[in-house]
């Protein structure tokens, strides 16, 4: 309980976030790090403008993730106003046991290290093709010309075998649904992608099987015989497509932004590629692209000293957890040599991300190819980074300049 708000605002520059947390406020994108640090230090349980809870300390976030019978996903993970409205629930994200495990485990084999490795050469080719489109220009907006299209194509084209000519539509519509514009615009784009995915599934149903993730979704059956509708199948393909679409590119952009503003780190990675995997873990920790996900309580509990009751909605804040000094040593420092990095960027527990190996491979190949072909790059003078806020977080543009080959 705060006795004197003027004292609190002197101690916590972001005190208004303690009881008026608003993911849609532009400041949530741009002041994300400071807000996260402030919440971890001063306000382990904040309240949103809609009266929902936000937990930020590592141990509390982990408890929410691990106690998934109490902190349920089945009635929705998106809270009130933060995600396009849709009739279908996200599958398998918005499911509880046992349905969740049945569906999710039917996909696991497509996301093992070995299964992912099969796609690496094609993804490297896609990434090189993107670099070809701007290399001679000596300048690039890394988000629009590299990070966004690579996330879309690596999954939709290389893994889900969607037609190459549909990539511009998919990239534009999914990005708009997840990150841009009013909620009405997002919802319209979400519906457009849902219609596309439904038509694509119908088309694939009439073709011979390829034994890929799309077939796994098309032919999934519950072991107890209950129905799994075409709408749910479309929702499942939407979820797995959308999940990697904004996230991977956001980390690539964050990584290149850090390397452009810390040339000593860039030179280290250029001269020793074996440092890249560990550096990626640090970029994942800092530029966390899906920081806020929600759960609904199925019973009463106490969390970080706060009484909560059945039906309450609780967000976990990975920005806070990944900067909690109780677990991460000197969390404010981007340390590419960090040995113990227990970030929660892919969450944990039953709903832990399905795609970490795929995401890591994409980010690694993107950095390898970019550093190989554009080893010396600078941020355009005067540029101020701006981050989109919401359940996902990413830099909206990153203008770089570099010497085009043959320009000297
Ligand atoms: C840097 C990249 C990524 C990040 C940071 C990320 C983050 C996350 C997080 C935090 C969750 C947990 C949601 C929850 O607690 O309810 C999640 C779930 C999920 N992710 Fe990712 N993700 C990434 C990339 C991917 C990719 C590339 C794919 C697949 C192509 C993917 C597929 C999924 C799926 C299917 C789920 C739902 C899992 C379940 O409910 O069992 N993700 N992801």
Annotated CATH architecture:
Orthogonal Bundle
Q: What strand order characterises the main sheet?
A: 1-2-8-5-3
CATH class: Mainly Alpha
Please estimate the helix content. Answer: 40-55%
Description:
With 408 residues, the chain is an alpha+beta fold. It has a single domain, classed as Cytochrome P450 (Cytochrome p450), CATH 1.10.630.10. Helix content is 48%, strand content 10%. A five-stranded mixed beta sheet has the order 1-2-8-5-3. Strand 10 and strand 11 form a beta hairpin. 42% of the residues are buried. The site of protoporphyrin IX containing FE has 25 residues, from helix 13, helix 14 and helix 18.
In short:
The chain is an alpha+beta fold and 408 residues long. It is built from 18 helices and twelve strands. It binds protoporphyrin IX containing FE (HEM).
Present the secondary structure layout.
Elements: H1 5-11, H2 16-19, H3 26-30, H4 32-42, E1 45-47, E2 53-55, H5 58-66, E3 71-72, H6 99-105, H7 113-117, H8 120-134, E4 139-141, H9 142-159, H10 167-179, H11 183-205, H12 213-218, H13 230-245, H14 247-261, H15 263-271, H16 276-286, E5 292-297, E6 301-303, E7 306-308, E8 313-317, H17 318-321, H18 356-373, E9 377-379, E10 387-388, E11 394-395, E12 399-402
Parallel strand pairs: 2-8
Antiparallel strand pairs: 1-2, 3-5, 4-12, 5-8, 6-7, 9-12, 10-11
Helix pairs in contact: 8-9, 8-18, 9-10, 9-14, 10-11, 11-13, 14-15, 14-16, 14-18
The structure holds protoporphyrin IX containing FE.
């Amino acid at each position: 309980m705060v006795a004197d708000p003027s004292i609190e605002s002197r101690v916590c520059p972001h005190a208004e976030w303690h009881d008026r947390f608003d993911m849609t406020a532009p400041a949530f994108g741009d002041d994300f790090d400071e807000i996260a640090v402030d919440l971890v230090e001063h306000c382990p349980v904040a309240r949103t403008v809609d009266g929902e809870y936000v937990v930020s300390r590592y141990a509390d976030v982990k408890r929410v993730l691990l106690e998934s019978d109490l902190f349920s996903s089945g009635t929705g993970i998106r809270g009130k106003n933060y995600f396009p409205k849709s009739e279908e629930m996200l599958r398998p994200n918005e499911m509880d046991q046992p349905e969740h495990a049945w569906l999710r485990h039917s996909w696991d084999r497509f996301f093992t290290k070995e299964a992912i490795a099969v796609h690496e050469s094609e993804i490297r080719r896609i990434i090189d093709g993107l670099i070809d489109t701007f290399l001679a220009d000596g300048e690039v907006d890394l988000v629009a010309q590299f990070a966004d299209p690579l996330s879309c194509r690596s999954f939709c084209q290389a893994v889900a075998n969607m037609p190459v000519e549909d990539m511009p539509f998919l990239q534009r519509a999914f990005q708009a649904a997840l990150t841009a514009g009013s909620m009405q615009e997002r919802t319209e784009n979400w519906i457009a992608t849902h219609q596309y995915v439904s038509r694509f599934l119908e088309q694939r149903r009439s073709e011979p099987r390829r034994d890929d993730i799309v077939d796994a979704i098309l032919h999934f059956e519950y072991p107890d015989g209950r129905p799994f509708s075409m709408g749910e199948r479309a929702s499942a393909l939407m979820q797995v497509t959308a999940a990697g679409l904004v996230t991977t590119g956001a980390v690539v952009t964050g990584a290149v932004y850090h390397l452009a503003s810390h040339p000593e780190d860039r030179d280290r990675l250029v001269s020793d590629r074996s440092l890249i995997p560990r550096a990626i873990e640090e970029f994942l920790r800092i530029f966390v692209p899906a920081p806020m996900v929600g759960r609904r309580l199925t019973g009463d509990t106490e969390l970080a000293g706060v009484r909560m009751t059945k039906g309450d909605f609780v967000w976990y804040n990975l920005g806070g957890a990944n900067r909690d000094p109780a677990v991460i040593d000197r969390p404010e420092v981007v340390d590419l040599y960090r040995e113990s990095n227990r970030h929660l960027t892919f969450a944990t527990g039953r709903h832990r991300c399905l795609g970490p190996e795929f995401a890591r491979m994409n980010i690694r190949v993107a950095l390898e190819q970019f550093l190989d072909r554009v080893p010396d790059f600078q941020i355009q003078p005067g540029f101020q980074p701006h981050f989109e806020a919401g359940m996902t977080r990413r830099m909206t543009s990153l203008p770089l300049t570099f010497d085009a080959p043959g320009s000297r």
